[in-house]
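User: Batch of two.

Assistant: Item 1 of 2:
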Amino acid sequence: MLVHERRWDNWCVFACHLEHAARDLAGKTDTPRLLGVSVARRTFDRWMIGELDSLPQRDHQVVLEHLLGFPCVELFGPPPGASGLARDACTDRCGDELTAPGLRLASQYDVAMLALDKRHGD
């Protein structure tokens, strides 16, 4: 949702912001390996549609958290206040819980449907 709100839902735009955040964080934390953090188009597409069985790699996590201001567990989970519905939808469809260790992330469809429900007061 944050990526859409900021209009970074184009891979090129998002990749530019991510790489800038990686450089910024590398300088602030004196962690040169973060300079190599980038996102492939396929990875970005998977992130955007929620096709993940686990969170991104650790260096990506710290850069994403720096860029977007939220822990990755929240960034890749259902939106705040909607976790019950997303959990039920995912449990019904996948047979898995949303909680670790078998982390199953809400799909973009689940998130979109929750946003529509919230918008219409359902």
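Item 2 of 2:
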Amino acid sequence: MVLRKLAIVAGLAAFALYLCGLLHVLGALVQAEDGGADSSPILPCRTTDGQEGGPEDPRAAQVVDYSVDFVPLRFVCEMTGGGSYVTDTVPGYVNPAVFGLVLAGLGCWVAALVVAPPGPRGVRGPGG
């Protein structure tokens, strides 16, 4: 029973952390879709840390579009000629931590199934 609860907690923690990273990507999408006088090159691609006022990225002048990858979670700037690069929009700990929590949750769930396989509850054996 404890292993199943640990699996659920690990799964919920992975989900919450993924949502946190998704909010970072959503913020970058809002910045990227913001049209105006200062919209080219795309702001999340313009700086090395993905934030306004950060250090300038020399590759930003060649950016023509962007895309979002959901596994692993990241914001990708696409350049002319087919090249691309990933910004630091999503904090570096999000993807490895989500991966580790998912593995831990799956491991706990499988261990719980091996230790105590699901079956009818309240049924006693002979003599009980």
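The chain has a mean pLDDT of 86.
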